[in-house]
Amino acid sequence: MESETAKLIKLVRAMPLAQQLIPMEALSGWPMPLRRGSKVYVHLPFIGANQTKDKSGMALFPPFALVTVDWSNGLPVQYLNLRFQHPWPEGYWDNQAGTFPHPEIAQLPKTEYVSKCQELLAMYDHLLNSLVKREAFTPEWKTRFSESLRLLMEPGLEPYYRALSPKFFQTFLPQSS
Amino acid sequence: MANFQATKQETLSLLKSAINFAKASSHKNAVKRLNDSHQHLLEGKLFVVVAGEFKQGKSSLINAFLREPGLFPVDVDIATNLVSTITYGDAEKVTVVLGEPGKEKRKEIRRSDIPDYVTEQGNQRNSKQARMLVMESPNAQLKEGLILVDTPGVGGLNVQHTDITYAYIPNADSILFVSDAHAPLSTEELNFIKRISQHCQNFIFVVTKIDAVSNYKSIIDSNREKLAQVLPETGDKFPIIPVSSSASLAYLDTQDPEDLEDSNLSSLEQELWQLLSQQRGKILLLRALTELGRVVADIRTPLQAEWEACQQHDREDQTKLESKLQDTSERLKQLQGNSSAWQYQLNEGIQDTQKELFRELSREIEQIKRRSQDYMEDSRFLEDPPQIARLLETDFDSMMSTLSEKLSQKAGNLHVEIVNSTGLNMNPLAIDSLDWRNLGEDSSEVRELEGLSQVKAPQADWWTKAVDMVYKGGFKATAGTTVGTLLGGTLGGIAGLLFGGAGAVPGAQIGMALGSVLGGVKGFSDGAKDALSQIQERNQILAKREISKIINPYIIDNQLLCKAALEDMVTKLSRTMRNDLQQQIKRERELCDRSLRSFQKTLKLSQEQMIRKMAELKGPLQQLTDFQKAAEKLAMQALEEAESDTISPSDPAASSADAASSDSPTTPQPVAASADYGDWADG
User: Fold this and answer.
1) Which of A33, A126, A135 sits opposite B665 (nearest CB)?
2) How many helices (H) and strands (E) does chain A have?
3) Contact: A126, B666; criterion CB under 8 Å
4) Domain range for residue B621?
5) Which residue in A has a C-alpha nearest to residue B656's C-alpha?
6) DSSP character at residue B72
7) I need a labelling partner for B232 at 20 to 30 A (CA). Which of A6, B132, B191, B553 fits?
8) Which CA distances in Å does B156 have to B77, B106, B180, B368?
9) Across B22-31, B62-71, B308-317, B387-396, which has the greatest mean pLDDT?
């Protein structure tokens, strides 16, 4: 069964807003949650991508846009052009930040990779719904989520993700200061 | 437990026998302690809250349960926002509490006047300012200490009704949630159940009016399925009892056994008593039995010392026993000192608890602030601004009830830790010699001395469990708390008097403090409600701005009030726990010294005098042994249900085990207090 988060990403991509502003070849990144009061929102980054010269994968560039949607109804509440305003010092927009697939996942069979992605997206459902209900996360669940995110997140994009949602990544992928 | 009512009667009768014995042997202090214990058990209250939507048959159910048709009015429109309580009394007495908060007055009324206060027809929009109805009745169903609380309905946007019901939940020993067989549980009902399940999970779901529909079984199936979703921790273990109150009441007229069977009320009674026996009832019994054990041991120990002195031990054994008693006395003297380790343990434990509760208070206040913003976004509340103050009042009430319950639990745990580390938890019912006063030292040598009793278990598991249960349960707030929760300090005090004191002192203190703070919250709320009712602004943005000007200071005032009250609760509780432990140590030391003196005095007797002494001692010691054995048997009986219980959803150990074994990444799991609630996502 398709997760709510996967459906939301598809919904965002299908919105006129995204069709106008986000190139078709751009990839959507991993969502980042935000809670304000009783409302939970999802930051969805978009990442520039081109096929690599040797056609072995996709060259990834820094995120160039961030769409924020209301998790309860999927309505967009913010579009941020990261080339215009970004939380990192300089935007080397043309420098390749990473490659998809990165070595850790390149070795996985496609079916297994897809299944792991689905699993992580399903865990996002739980994450976002729990934030709405203010239910606590068990340490076991957090560990599973962290492991899954660590495996699937492109290492080259990690600094950008951290800049976009420092607390989320420090919680699930902690870095010693 | 075989049967709470029967075990309670046996315990009361055992206490009476022990009182007579103590009187006959002129142990005045023991008589007083045993009388107190007897009274506490007799008055021990078991709170059963009857909740549910309007017109679901709650009042009819109570009438049927009490076998008193027409006691509470039925077949009327929605009742007013009046909680009615009914408890046992020698004669019928109905009191209505009237007036503004802080200026309440009690008025005795006749039973026939009840509808004039509790129904919408008799008391439109509560023009009579009735706050609560308290009934005492010589009804046999209530004799074992039941307090039935009939609450107004929940649901809809009738905040006044709902918040009063919420206020009663945290200290309920059981909740009878009533819905009727006409329809499955609604979303509003399920939301209510989910919310109150955070405070009390001892639900019995009652489906009424089963005589009115043919397909009530499918309604029950549907309810079970829905409840399994909102109460995932319980699986499908919660009881759902279909009843027909009208068949039960018809039975009173016809005496036709078929009517009684059709009513299925006996199943409900059985389920209710089983649940109460497993919970508060057990604590009431164990509190009485452990106190009986201590008093009997206090009488027995000096006699036992004399008995030991009369035995034909050699000089070496006598010296050993004497020096053991002296060492114990010395250790108890050290425990009495202000620099004793347990004093530090208590201070540190209290400080940790306070820090933790303050952190939680801050977190909860932040949530209330966010919720206040949500309320102000809601157009329904913007049209009726006083509703916002009512909702926030409920939020504050609920927060303080939860925090006070956590404080009670932590204090109980701390007390148990301290009595364990000091050795004050030794089992007085298991003494076979004087070795139980050795406070943790290896006493095997002393135990070799010949004793009178054949009981050979100095530290039985059941005793530890009983003491744990009594203290951890004993610090819980009591009847006064619940009433205080709703009505604030002044009225809480009045109602506390009506119900009689039944709980441990610390619990009552938390109750009083809680009652007082909630009274304060209510006072602030009333002020805010008045101010909010003046807002006439139709433009929602401007209205919101006006409301903010009132609500923001209201939240700050309440925050300060709650923080001060929490500090006050912790301080008082700490003082009470310290006094309690000091008293216990003092008693132990006096007893030890008395036993030592008896022992030394008896050693000086001649052979002939010793024989006479033994003859004198034999009868009383045998009788005391019989008391001990009977108390032990009853305590085991009270505990045995716990051994066979299925794991309770509120059992933290069970919760963490569940969490650890869960495979599903999408299932929310119960977690510990220091859990991650996703605050990192707040921005």
Assistant:
1) A126
2) 7, 6
3) yes
4) 1-18+280-308+605-643
5) A138
6) S
7) A6
8) 15, 31, 17, 21
9) B22-31
